[in-house]
Amino acid sequence: MKEIALHLLDLAENSVSAEAHTVHVSVAEDFRKDKLTISVEDDGLGMNEDAVKQLGDPFYTSRTTRKVGLGIPLLKEQAETCNGKMNITSTPGIGTKVEAAFQHSHIDRLPLGNLTTTFLTLTVAHPDIHWIFTYFYNPPFHGSERVFEFDDGPIKETLDGVPLTHPDVITYLRHSLEEGFAEARK
Amino acid sequence: MPAVKSLEELKKIREEALKKRDIKTPSAHVQIVVGMGTPGIAAGARDTLKEFLTMIEEKNLTDIVVRQTGNFGMDSVEPVVQVIIDDAKPVTYGKVTPFAARQIMEEHVIGGTIVQANVIPS
Question: Is B9 on the interface with A (CB under 8 A)?
Protein backbone atom coordinates (compact mmCIF):
# COMPACT_ATOMS: atom_id res chain seq x y z
CA MET A 1 0.00 0.00 0.00
CA LYS A 2 1.48 3.30 -1.06
CA GLU A 3 -1.18 5.64 0.27
CA ILE A 4 -3.24 6.12 3.42
CA ALA A 5 -6.20 6.49 1.05
CA LEU A 6 -5.65 2.89 -0.10
CA HIS A 7 -5.72 1.67 3.50
CA LEU A 8 -9.03 3.46 3.89
CA LEU A 9 -10.35 1.65 0.85
CA ASP A 10 -9.17 -1.65 2.31
CA LEU A 11 -10.82 -0.95 5.69
CA ALA A 12 -14.02 0.15 3.97
CA GLU A 13 -14.04 -3.08 1.99
CA ASN A 14 -13.89 -5.00 5.30
CA SER A 15 -17.01 -3.13 6.42
CA VAL A 16 -18.78 -4.14 3.22
CA SER A 17 -17.81 -7.78 3.82
CA ALA A 18 -19.23 -7.43 7.33
CA GLU A 19 -22.60 -6.60 5.77
CA ALA A 20 -22.67 -2.97 6.90
CA HIS A 21 -25.46 -0.67 5.74
CA THR A 22 -23.91 2.64 6.74
CA VAL A 23 -20.18 3.30 6.85
CA HIS A 24 -18.60 6.44 8.22
CA VAL A 25 -15.08 7.14 6.93
CA SER A 26 -13.16 10.01 8.42
CA VAL A 27 -9.78 11.65 7.91
CA ALA A 28 -8.44 14.32 10.25
CA GLU A 29 -5.33 16.31 9.43
CA ASP A 30 -4.40 18.30 12.48
CA PHE A 31 -1.23 20.27 11.84
CA ARG A 32 -1.32 21.98 15.22
CA LYS A 33 -1.20 18.70 17.07
CA ASP A 34 0.98 17.20 14.32
CA LYS A 35 -1.41 14.33 14.01
CA LEU A 36 -3.17 12.46 11.24
CA THR A 37 -6.08 10.28 12.27
CA ILE A 38 -8.18 8.03 10.07
CA SER A 39 -11.17 5.96 11.04
CA VAL A 40 -13.77 3.68 9.54
CA GLU A 41 -16.90 2.94 11.53
CA ASP A 42 -19.63 0.58 10.41
CA ASP A 43 -22.89 -0.98 11.55
CA GLY A 44 -21.90 -4.40 10.28
CA LEU A 45 -21.76 -7.79 12.00
CA GLY A 46 -19.07 -6.86 14.51
CA MET A 47 -16.66 -9.24 16.19
CA ASN A 48 -16.18 -10.69 19.64
CA GLU A 49 -13.17 -9.84 21.81
CA ASP A 50 -11.12 -12.85 20.77
CA ALA A 51 -11.47 -12.03 17.09
CA VAL A 52 -10.48 -8.40 17.71
CA LYS A 53 -7.35 -9.52 19.59
CA GLN A 54 -6.27 -11.69 16.70
CA LEU A 55 -6.61 -8.94 14.12
CA GLY A 56 -3.03 -7.75 14.57
CA ASP A 57 -1.85 -11.22 13.61
CA PRO A 58 -1.16 -11.61 9.89
CA PHE A 59 -1.98 -15.32 10.08
CA TYR A 60 -5.49 -14.60 11.20
CA THR A 61 -8.15 -13.98 8.58
CA SER A 62 -11.86 -14.63 8.27
CA ARG A 63 -11.46 -15.30 4.60
CA THR A 64 -11.70 -18.76 3.14
CA THR A 65 -9.80 -18.28 -0.11
CA ARG A 66 -6.43 -17.70 1.52
CA LYS A 67 -4.90 -18.18 4.95
CA VAL A 68 -3.22 -14.84 5.58
CA GLY A 69 -4.76 -11.39 5.96
CA LEU A 70 -2.35 -8.49 5.73
CA GLY A 71 -4.55 -5.41 5.63
CA ILE A 72 -4.93 -4.69 9.35
CA PRO A 73 -1.43 -5.83 10.48
CA LEU A 74 0.17 -3.60 7.83
CA LEU A 75 -1.80 -0.58 8.97
CA LYS A 76 -1.00 -1.30 12.62
CA GLU A 77 2.71 -1.52 11.90
CA GLN A 78 2.67 1.67 9.88
CA ALA A 79 0.84 3.60 12.59
CA GLU A 80 3.26 2.37 15.26
CA THR A 81 6.29 3.19 13.12
CA CYS A 82 5.00 6.76 12.93
CA ASN A 83 4.63 7.24 16.71
CA GLY A 84 0.96 6.47 16.46
CA LYS A 85 -1.28 3.54 17.15
CA MET A 86 -4.18 1.57 15.85
CA ASN A 87 -7.28 0.82 17.82
CA ILE A 88 -10.21 -1.47 17.07
CA THR A 89 -13.46 -1.57 18.96
CA SER A 90 -16.18 -3.97 17.96
CA THR A 91 -19.42 -5.35 19.31
CA PRO A 92 -21.19 -8.30 17.74
CA GLY A 93 -24.46 -7.15 16.23
CA ILE A 94 -23.58 -3.46 16.58
CA GLY A 95 -20.57 -2.83 14.39
CA THR A 96 -16.87 -2.10 14.27
CA LYS A 97 -14.68 0.97 14.47
CA VAL A 98 -11.08 0.94 13.31
CA GLU A 99 -8.99 3.98 14.08
CA ALA A 100 -5.35 4.68 13.28
CA ALA A 101 -3.26 7.68 14.27
CA PHE A 102 0.08 8.84 12.89
CA GLN A 103 2.51 11.62 13.69
CA HIS A 104 1.70 13.86 10.74
CA SER A 105 5.27 15.01 10.14
CA HIS A 106 6.89 11.59 10.61
CA ILE A 107 9.32 10.88 7.81
CA ASP A 108 8.02 7.34 7.32
CA ARG A 109 4.37 8.30 7.19
CA LEU A 110 2.71 7.26 3.96
CA PRO A 111 1.33 10.10 1.88
CA LEU A 112 -2.39 10.67 2.32
CA GLY A 113 -2.87 9.92 -1.37
CA ASN A 114 -5.90 10.47 -3.49
CA LEU A 115 -8.94 10.70 -1.22
CA THR A 116 -11.20 11.81 -4.06
CA THR A 117 -10.56 8.61 -6.00
CA THR A 118 -11.02 6.42 -2.94
CA PHE A 119 -14.33 8.05 -1.99
CA LEU A 120 -15.53 8.19 -5.60
CA THR A 121 -14.92 4.49 -6.19
CA LEU A 122 -16.63 3.54 -2.91
CA THR A 123 -19.71 5.65 -3.62
CA VAL A 124 -20.09 4.53 -7.22
CA ALA A 125 -19.08 0.89 -6.97
CA HIS A 126 -21.07 0.10 -3.82
CA PRO A 127 -24.46 1.59 -4.68
CA ASP A 128 -26.27 -0.22 -1.86
CA ILE A 129 -24.12 1.17 0.93
CA HIS A 130 -24.67 4.50 2.59
CA TRP A 131 -21.31 6.28 2.81
CA ILE A 132 -20.53 9.27 4.97
CA PHE A 133 -17.11 10.82 4.47
CA THR A 134 -15.72 13.45 6.79
CA TYR A 135 -12.54 15.39 6.23
CA PHE A 136 -11.26 17.54 9.05
CA TYR A 137 -8.46 20.03 8.47
CA ASN A 138 -6.73 22.12 11.11
CA PRO A 139 -4.17 24.40 9.42
CA PRO A 140 -0.59 24.76 10.76
CA PHE A 141 -0.42 28.42 11.76
CA HIS A 142 -3.56 30.46 11.85
CA GLY A 143 -7.07 30.09 10.57
CA SER A 144 -9.79 27.99 12.08
CA GLU A 145 -10.39 24.29 11.64
CA ARG A 146 -12.59 23.24 8.75
CA VAL A 147 -14.74 20.25 8.05
CA PHE A 148 -15.93 18.84 4.75
CA GLU A 149 -18.67 16.27 5.02
CA PHE A 150 -19.88 14.24 2.09
CA ASP A 151 -22.97 12.16 2.77
CA ASP A 152 -24.06 10.14 -0.26
CA GLY A 153 -27.48 9.31 1.25
CA PRO A 154 -29.37 12.32 -0.18
CA ILE A 155 -27.53 11.86 -3.50
CA LYS A 156 -28.52 8.23 -3.86
CA GLU A 157 -32.07 9.11 -2.86
CA THR A 158 -32.30 11.95 -5.39
CA LEU A 159 -31.00 9.77 -8.22
CA ASP A 160 -33.78 7.27 -7.62
CA GLY A 161 -33.02 4.70 -10.29
CA VAL A 162 -30.51 6.60 -12.41
CA PRO A 163 -27.24 4.67 -12.07
CA LEU A 164 -24.30 6.20 -10.21
CA THR A 165 -22.19 5.28 -13.23
CA HIS A 166 -24.10 7.67 -15.49
CA PRO A 167 -21.34 9.89 -16.95
CA ASP A 168 -22.89 13.14 -15.72
CA VAL A 169 -23.35 11.68 -12.25
CA ILE A 170 -19.69 10.62 -12.09
CA THR A 171 -18.68 14.14 -13.08
CA TYR A 172 -21.00 15.59 -10.45
CA LEU A 173 -19.60 13.35 -7.70
CA ARG A 174 -15.99 13.93 -8.69
CA HIS A 175 -16.44 17.70 -8.72
CA SER A 176 -18.28 17.67 -5.37
CA LEU A 177 -15.41 15.77 -3.76
CA GLU A 178 -12.58 17.74 -5.40
CA GLU A 179 -14.17 21.08 -4.54
CA GLY A 180 -14.97 19.98 -1.01
CA PHE A 181 -11.36 19.02 -0.27
CA ALA A 182 -9.97 22.12 -1.96
CA GLU A 183 -12.32 24.35 0.01
CA ALA A 184 -11.39 22.71 3.33
CA ARG A 185 -7.66 23.10 2.63
CA LYS A 186 -7.84 26.68 1.40
CA MET B 1 -18.16 24.49 6.36
CA PRO B 2 -18.03 24.14 2.57
CA ALA B 3 -21.36 23.13 1.08
CA VAL B 4 -21.82 20.00 -0.95
CA LYS B 5 -22.76 20.77 -4.55
CA SER B 6 -26.45 21.38 -4.78
CA LEU B 7 -28.92 18.56 -5.08
CA GLU B 8 -30.88 20.73 -7.53
CA GLU B 9 -28.09 20.24 -10.01
CA LEU B 10 -28.32 16.50 -9.46
CA LYS B 11 -32.06 16.53 -10.02
CA LYS B 12 -31.49 18.14 -13.42
CA ILE B 13 -28.94 15.47 -14.31
CA ARG B 14 -31.48 12.84 -13.31
CA GLU B 15 -34.25 14.32 -15.45
CA GLU B 16 -31.97 14.62 -18.46
CA ALA B 17 -30.81 11.03 -18.00
CA LEU B 18 -34.37 9.73 -17.76
CA LYS B 19 -35.46 11.63 -20.86
CA LYS B 20 -32.72 10.03 -22.91
CA ARG B 21 -33.32 6.61 -21.44
CA ASP B 22 -36.95 6.34 -22.51
CA ILE B 23 -36.00 5.01 -25.91
CA LYS B 24 -33.51 2.50 -24.54
CA THR B 25 -33.80 -0.55 -22.34
CA PRO B 26 -34.05 0.24 -18.64
CA SER B 27 -31.22 -1.95 -17.34
CA ALA B 28 -27.51 -1.68 -17.98
CA HIS B 29 -26.01 -3.76 -20.78
CA VAL B 30 -22.55 -3.95 -19.37
CA GLN B 31 -21.35 -4.78 -15.89
CA ILE B 32 -17.75 -4.26 -14.93
CA VAL B 33 -16.74 -5.82 -11.62
CA VAL B 34 -13.38 -4.97 -10.06
CA GLY B 35 -11.84 -7.13 -7.32
CA MET B 36 -11.04 -4.83 -4.41
CA GLY B 37 -9.64 -7.13 -1.73
CA THR B 38 -6.33 -6.23 -0.04
CA PRO B 39 -4.23 -7.84 -2.82
CA GLY B 40 -6.26 -6.12 -5.51
CA ILE B 41 -5.89 -2.74 -3.84
CA ALA B 42 -2.16 -3.25 -3.32
CA ALA B 43 -1.82 -4.12 -7.01
CA GLY B 44 -3.55 -0.94 -8.12
CA ALA B 45 -7.23 -1.94 -8.48
CA ARG B 46 -8.48 1.45 -7.32
CA ASP B 47 -6.80 3.28 -10.18
CA THR B 48 -8.02 0.61 -12.60
CA LEU B 49 -11.59 1.24 -11.46
CA LYS B 50 -10.99 4.98 -11.71
CA GLU B 51 -9.85 4.53 -15.32
CA PHE B 52 -13.14 2.83 -16.20
CA LEU B 53 -15.03 5.74 -14.63
CA THR B 54 -12.86 8.27 -16.47
CA MET B 55 -13.61 6.56 -19.78
CA ILE B 56 -17.35 6.52 -19.06
CA GLU B 57 -17.10 10.28 -18.52
CA GLU B 58 -14.91 10.86 -21.58
CA LYS B 59 -16.97 8.79 -23.99
CA ASN B 60 -20.31 9.60 -22.39
CA LEU B 61 -21.34 5.96 -22.02
CA THR B 62 -24.67 5.42 -20.30
CA ASP B 63 -25.25 1.67 -20.23
CA ILE B 64 -22.47 0.59 -17.93
CA VAL B 65 -22.50 -0.32 -14.26
CA VAL B 66 -19.18 -0.50 -12.41
CA ARG B 67 -19.04 -2.35 -9.13
CA GLN B 68 -16.39 -3.57 -6.79
CA THR B 69 -16.28 -6.84 -4.97
CA GLY B 70 -14.02 -8.55 -2.45
CA ASN B 71 -11.16 -10.83 -3.26
CA PHE B 72 -11.48 -12.97 -6.41
CA GLY B 73 -8.81 -15.30 -4.97
CA MET B 74 -6.36 -14.83 -7.84
CA ASP B 75 -3.65 -12.87 -6.09
CA SER B 76 -0.88 -13.40 -8.62
CA VAL B 77 -2.83 -11.80 -11.45
CA GLU B 78 -4.38 -8.82 -9.64
CA PRO B 79 -5.97 -6.45 -10.41
CA VAL B 80 -8.73 -8.77 -11.60
CA VAL B 81 -11.72 -7.46 -13.55
CA GLN B 82 -14.81 -9.24 -14.78
CA VAL B 83 -16.76 -7.95 -17.77
CA ILE B 84 -20.32 -9.13 -18.25
CA ILE B 85 -22.13 -8.02 -21.39
CA ASP B 86 -25.84 -8.84 -21.53
CA ASP B 87 -26.28 -12.59 -21.22
CA ALA B 88 -22.84 -13.54 -22.50
CA LYS B 89 -20.54 -15.64 -20.33
CA PRO B 90 -18.52 -13.36 -18.01
CA VAL B 91 -14.98 -12.69 -19.18
CA THR B 92 -12.35 -12.53 -16.43
CA TYR B 93 -9.27 -10.40 -17.03
CA GLY B 94 -6.03 -10.39 -15.02
CA LYS B 95 -3.27 -7.81 -14.53
CA VAL B 96 -5.62 -5.04 -15.51
CA THR B 97 -3.53 -1.90 -15.26
CA PRO B 98 -5.23 1.41 -16.10
CA PHE B 99 -3.70 1.00 -19.56
CA ALA B 100 -5.26 -2.46 -19.95
CA ALA B 101 -8.55 -1.07 -18.62
CA ARG B 102 -8.56 1.46 -21.43
CA GLN B 103 -7.93 -1.30 -23.96
CA ILE B 104 -10.70 -3.51 -22.51
CA MET B 105 -13.11 -0.59 -22.61
CA GLU B 106 -12.30 0.32 -26.20
CA GLU B 107 -11.98 -3.16 -27.71
CA HIS B 108 -14.32 -5.32 -25.64
CA VAL B 109 -17.01 -3.10 -24.12
CA ILE B 110 -17.34 -0.74 -27.08
CA GLY B 111 -15.91 -2.82 -29.93
CA GLY B 112 -17.14 -6.26 -28.92
CA THR B 113 -13.79 -8.04 -29.27
CA ILE B 114 -12.31 -9.73 -26.19
CA VAL B 115 -8.78 -8.60 -25.28
CA GLN B 116 -7.14 -12.04 -25.38
CA ALA B 117 -3.80 -10.96 -23.91
CA ASN B 118 -5.36 -10.33 -20.48
CA VAL B 119 -7.95 -13.10 -20.33
CA ILE B 120 -7.67 -15.57 -17.45
CA PRO B 121 -8.76 -18.94 -18.81
CA SER B 122 -11.57 -20.36 -16.72
Answer: yes
